[in-house]
Each structure stands twice: as structure tokens, then as C-alpha cells.
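lol forgot to send this yesterday, sorry. C-alpha cells for the thing we talked abt
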């Protein structure tokens, strides 16, 4: 399933699959917060390009990961993804999709993550996903506000394999 023309928008943000040409913009937006919560370390232009290529393969294969760039005013401001692979996500069940997101530092606190999550939830409904899940490290205080603002309810706290405590938020779709 080719999704080169996929665009989800609410009139403020646009979600669309990353392209290789976006690699340097994405790398430039990375900061210590994204390294800590999302990428697990400092990225390079090569690792970002490889990540984009892998995500393009997922789009062509209709999943299990649906990764999108977040744009506003022709500026790349972050990323969001849904992962439907229950084997790869601790605490996830059949029919659920785990949502992860990251907004570049100068665009944080402006409501873009909330808009992106709401758009992705609508996309997941079209994929017949029954529940959206957001798992957030309890220490990631800024990110903990997003699921509540998007109508998710905290369902559990789990200890991940790496020993972190994750708050698990769920929303029926």
C-alpha cells in the first residue's frame, strides 16, 4: 500500500510520511529530550535516513508501524507514530495501537502534539484499530499532559524491561 500522497490535516498541522529529503530537518530538530525519550541516543544523518527508509517499507507493507512527520506553516516540527505490533510493545493487546510522538523543542507547548495525536487517532479508526494506547515514562512530565488533553484515560502503570515505570493511557476508538 503506497501512501506517498497521504496527508492528514486539521488546518493547522499536517501529518504525512517522512521522505528522505526530510532527514536533515528531522536531525536538526533532535535534542536531549528526544534522545532520552524516543531515539535512545544521538542520531546521525545516516541513522535518520535508515529510519525513514524503514518507515517507508512499513507504509508499503501496511504496517505494523505508521510513522508520520508533523508539519505546520511548511516547517517540520516533529514526528508521531502508531505501532500495531503487540509483540514489540510491552503491555499492548490485540486491536490496540501504541502512539509515540516528539515535538522539536522550539515548537513545544503550543498544542501541536495534541493536534497530531487527535489526527492520528482518526487515522487509526480508519484502520479498524479498537483502542489507542500511549505509554509515557513517569518522569516525562511535559508529555504526560497530552493523553489527558486528547481524552485518554490512565489505565495502568507498568515496569518496562529496562526498569522504567510507564504510565499507560487508553482511548477507545
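and heres what i got for the seq, position by position
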Amino acid at each position: 500500500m503506497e501512501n506517498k500522497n497521504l496527508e492528514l490535516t486539521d488546518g493547522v498541522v499536517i501529518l504525512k510520511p517522512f521522505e528522505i529529503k526530510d532527514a536533515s530537518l528531522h536531525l536538526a530538530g533532535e535534542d536531549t529530550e528526544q534522545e532520552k525519550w524516543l531515539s535512545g541516543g544521538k542520531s546521525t544523518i545516516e541513522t535518520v535516513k535508515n529510519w525513514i527508509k524503514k518507515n517507508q517499507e512499513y507504509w508499503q507493507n501496511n504496517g505494523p508501524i505508521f510513522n508520520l512527520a508533523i508539519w505546520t506553516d511548511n516547517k517540520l516540527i516533529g514526528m508521531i507514530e502508531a505501532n500495531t505490533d503487540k509483540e514489540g510493545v510491552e503491555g499492548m493487546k490485540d486491536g490496540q495501537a501504541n502512539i509515540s510522538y516528539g515535538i522539536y523543542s522550539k515548537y513545544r507547548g503550543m498544542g501541536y502534539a495534541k493536534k497530531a495525536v487527535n489526527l492520528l487517532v482518526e487515522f487509526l479508526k480508519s484502520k479498524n484499530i479498537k483502542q489507542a494506547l500511549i505509554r509515557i515514562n513517569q518522569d516525562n512530565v511535559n508529555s504526560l499532559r497530552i493523553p489527558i488533553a486528547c481524552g485518554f484515560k490512565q489505565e495502568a502503570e507498568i515496569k518496562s524491561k529496562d526498569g522504567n515505570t510507564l504510565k499507560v493511557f487508553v482511548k477507545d476508538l
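The mean pLDDT is 91. anyway ping me if u want another try
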